[in-house]
């Protein structure tokens, strides 16, 4: 009756959506099964509907279920750009209407094209649907681990947490996290950094952004380090914390802040720069590098559009807090020298000692010890720029179920409430 094995192939996959935590009802499984049986058995007794009506309904349900299933399995059932990048208002107009939102998810990923539905239906017509359905299944180790965990979930809360993290694992990021090789993963809910070199794991506590200045999810490569960096203060901090101190020379001296004209890089006298001038964007405010700098003694730079980076801190006490969401968005690391050592590919001991000495740490080589003994403290800044070759992949993620340093899946708190956002979007499929 015009219904062939392609319908059976699709149905066989739809009948397994429960393994991923979804409801068969959301994919019209019962309706498809019933109508397939009636058409093939020519059994229309008691339904008061003719063959054309049932065939039309079956075609509609098969098409809708196919597109819904393929779209979700191939790209995810939720679009993280839409979910997260319309949460936090960055700017408002005079009527307090949002004119700009903070970009909280900035990961290059595959998204469906405008012609995706036509592409899927073309595969149906070409009889290549079976291969495509197999091809789009999430197959990463993390996803399969969660899927297995789902089958034994003992509480509704654990089941919910597994499902939202399975959804994260469906998102097809172009810079995917490999299972091996040198890499750095910062998991925001865990407030932890994991640095893998293929043999061992360096893990450390980190501080992330507050609720108002959330650390964005992103992927990049760490390309260089700066020792005793100058801190260029972001405009958002100037607006909220610095501008109202305009003209206060004692405040600027106490914090070792300097003001520079952007166009000429000329240092300005504090008393000559008004609040309006600071807010104009024509001037930058920078904190001198060295002891007491807000970035600490070393910063790890990577390309991104948020002006965030990994860095040391002048306030190590924050690492002892259980909730470590206190930064303006950057990630502060608790073991900065160890991370610097990890970044470098077979560094010589004198290079490491130059970094130690420049960071105010004790040297470990005879050359370094002799240098300390024969030079004044102001001459201890031996190195400022250190390239990282090869560059190290960096992943700043947000997963509330994620392995610890021993590879054991652990539950982490939903510190930014992102699980709730994903869960709400998944409701039509559950």
List keywords for this structure.
single chain, alpha+beta, eight-stranded mixed barrel, four-stranded antiparallel β-sheet, 15 helices, elongated
Structure overview:
There is one protein chain. This protein is an alpha+beta fold and 430 residues long. It is built from 15 helices and 18 strands. An eight-stranded mixed β-barrel has the order 4-5-6-15-13-12-7-16. It has a four-stranded antiparallel β-sheet with strand order 8-11-9-10. Strands 1-2 form a two-stranded antiparallel ribbon. Strand 1 (89-92) and strand 2 (98-101) form a beta hairpin. The protein starts with a helix and ends with a helix.
Rg (CA only): 28 Å
Distance between the ends: 33 Å
Shape: elongated
Strand count, sense and barrel status of the largest sheet are: 8 strands, mixed, barrel
What is the count of β-strands?
A: 18
* Beta-strand share of residues: 15-25%
Helix content: 25-40%
Unreliable segments (pLDDT under 50, ≥5 consecutive)?
A: none
The structural class is alpha+beta
Q: Count of DSSP helices?
A: 15
Quote the average pLDDT.
Answer: 94
Strands across the major sheet, in which order? Answer: 4-5-6-15-13-12-7-16
């Amino acid at each position: 009756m015009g219904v062939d094995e392609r319908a059976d192939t699709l149905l066989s996959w739809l009948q397994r959506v429960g393994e991923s935590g979804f409801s068969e009802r959301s994919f019209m499984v019962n309706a498809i099964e019933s109508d397939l049986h009636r058409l093939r058995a020519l059994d229309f007794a008691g339904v008061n509907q003719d063959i054309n009506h049932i065939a039309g309904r079956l075609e509609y349900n098969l098409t809708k279920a196919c597109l819904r299933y393929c779209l979700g399995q191939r790209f995810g059932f939720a679009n993280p750009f839409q979910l997260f990048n319309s949460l936090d208002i960055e700017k408002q107009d005079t009527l307090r209407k949002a004119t700009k939102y903070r970009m909280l998810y900035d990961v290059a990923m595959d998204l469906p094209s405008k012609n995706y539905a036509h592409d899927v239906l073309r595969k149906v017509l070409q009889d290549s649907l079976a291969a495509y359905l197999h091809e789009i299944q999430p197959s990463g180790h993390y996803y399969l681990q969660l899927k297995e965990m789902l089958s034994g979930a003992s509480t509704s809360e654990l089941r919910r947490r597994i499902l939202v993290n399975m959804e994260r694992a469906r998102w097809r990021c172009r810079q995917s996290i490999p299972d091996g090789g040198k890499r750095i993963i910062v998991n925001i809910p865990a407030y932890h950094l994991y640095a893998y070199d293929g043999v061992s794991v360096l893990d450390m506590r980190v501080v992330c952004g507050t609720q108002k200045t959330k650390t964005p999810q992103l992927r990049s490569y760490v390309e260089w380090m700066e020792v005793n960096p100058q801190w260029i203060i972001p405009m958002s901090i100037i607006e909220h914390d610095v501008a109202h101190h305009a003209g206060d020379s004692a405040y600027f001296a106490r914090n070792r802040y300097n003001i520079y004209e952007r166009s000429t890089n000329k240092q300005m006298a504090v008393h000559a720069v008004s609040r309006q001038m600071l807010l104009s964007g024509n001037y930058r405010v920078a904190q001198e590098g060295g002891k007491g700098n807000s970035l600490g003694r070393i910063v790890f730079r990577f390309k991104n559009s948020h002006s965030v980076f990994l860095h040391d801190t002048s306030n190590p006490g924050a690492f002892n807090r259980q909730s470590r969401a206190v930064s303006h968005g950057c990630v502060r690391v608790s073991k900065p020298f160890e991370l610097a050592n990890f970044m470098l590919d077979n560094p010589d001991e004198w290079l490491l000692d130059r970094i130690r000495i420049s960071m105010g740490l004790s040297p470990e080589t005879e050359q370094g010890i002799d240098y300390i003994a024969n030079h004044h403290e102001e001459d201890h800044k031996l190195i400022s720029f250190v390239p990282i070759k090869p560059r190290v992949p960096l992943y700043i993620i947000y997963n509330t179920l994620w392995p610890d340093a021993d590879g054991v899946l652990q539950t982490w708190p939903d510190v930014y409430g992102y699980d709730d956002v994903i869960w709400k979007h998944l409701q039509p499929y559950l």
